[in-house]
Amino acid sequence: MLTLTENAGRVVKTLAENAPLTPGLVVPDDASSLTHGAGLRISSSADDNNFEVTMTATPHEADQVIESAGATVFLEESAAVALSDAVLDAQIDEQGGVRFALGKAE
Fold it and tell me: Is the pTM of this model over 0.70?
């Protein structure tokens, strides 16, 4: 199962709490729907080597839900399989931009 670093947990939780205020972040048309329980959704993209990351108010029906340190991540089925032994990390750059990185779990 995908695990989150402490940094990733903090960043995801902060994004979920502040998503409507985060410049450049893809959020639903009705950003006000991002309330308690919102999370980061990771899904497979058309290119098998990449993933799409969005904020969403609720998981899709078949999503795997991961909760860690107050953060919630929703994994689309294919992404859950591909990331089953991965660790998600996050960094915030000097301009406030977020970068996610995936590594192998030890």
Answer: yes
